[in-house]
Amino acid sequence: MKVIIEHLDDEIYDWSYIEYRHIYSFVGKENLIFTNLERNENGKNNRIKGYEKLKDLGELKVKNIKKIKTDIEKKYGKICLLDPKAEKILSPKDKKEFGVFLFGGILGDNPPRGRTEKAFGNLFEKKNLGNVQMSTNTAVLVTQQIIDEGLDFSDLDFVDEIEIILDQDTDEQGKPRNYSQILPYRYLVIKGKPILPDGLIEYLKQMDE
Length: 209
Ligand SMILES: C[S@@+](CC[C@H](N)C(=O)[O-])C[C@H]1O[C@@H](n2cnc3c(N)ncnc32)[C@H](O)[C@@H]1O
What we know:
This protein folds into 2 domains: 2-152, 3-Layer(aba) Sandwich (Alpha/beta knot), CATH 3.40.1280; 158-208, no CATH class. It has 6 helices and 13 strands. The chain has helices spanning 14-27, 65-76, 94-97, 115-120, 136-147, 200-208, and strands spanning 2-7, 32-35, 38-41, 44-47, 59-60, 79-82, 100-105, 125-127, 157-159, 162-170, 176-183, 187-190, 193-194.
C-alpha cells in the first residue's frame, strides 16, 4: 500500500517524528511519501524545521499534494483521502479503485477541529475510518489492515482513550499514587494490546520531567 503523508504542522515535532517512524516501520520506505515540506516566510520558500529527519523514512516532496496530484496519480493511480468527516467508510473493495492513500500529518486536537476537511476541501475522493479521531500512525495502520489484510472495519478492535502512567509515588498514607496523561484518541487493539509507536511513552515521560 502506497501512503502519502501531507505534513500540515509547521515543523516536524518530536511527537510527529515518532508517529512517522512507526508508519515507516510497517509500510516501508519504498511505500511512503511525505509532501508539503516547505513554508513561505517573507516571500521565500524555506524547508520546515526537522525536514532532514524524514529523509531516512520515505521519499520527500517539498510541494503540497494539490500541486503534484496529477503527477502522483499518473504514477500510482487514484488518491484516496482518509478523513473522519468523509461520508463513506473505507472497505477492502477500495483496493481496486485506489492506488495511493493520503493522510493529514497533524497532531490530534481535542475536540477535533476538522482540520483534515479544511486542509483538503473536496479535491480528493475521501473515506472515513469511523468518526472518532485517531493519530496519523493509527489511521495508516487501520488502512493497512483494511486494504492489505482485507479486514472489514467492523472486524477490528479499538480503545477510544488511553491513560499513560508517567510517574508513581505514594501519598501521606503510603497509598500508591499515579501521575498520568490521557491520550483522547482511538487506538487499534491487537491481541488485547493497544498499538502505540515505539518511543512514545518514553517521550511523554521525558516531557513530564
Ligand atoms: C490526528 S488526525 C487529525 C484529525 C484532525 N483533528 C481533524 O479534525 O481532522 C490525523 C490524520 O489521520 C487520519 N484520520 C484520523 N482519524 C481518522 C478517521 N476516523 N477516519 C479517517 N481518517 C482519520 C486523517 O487523515 C487525519 O488527517
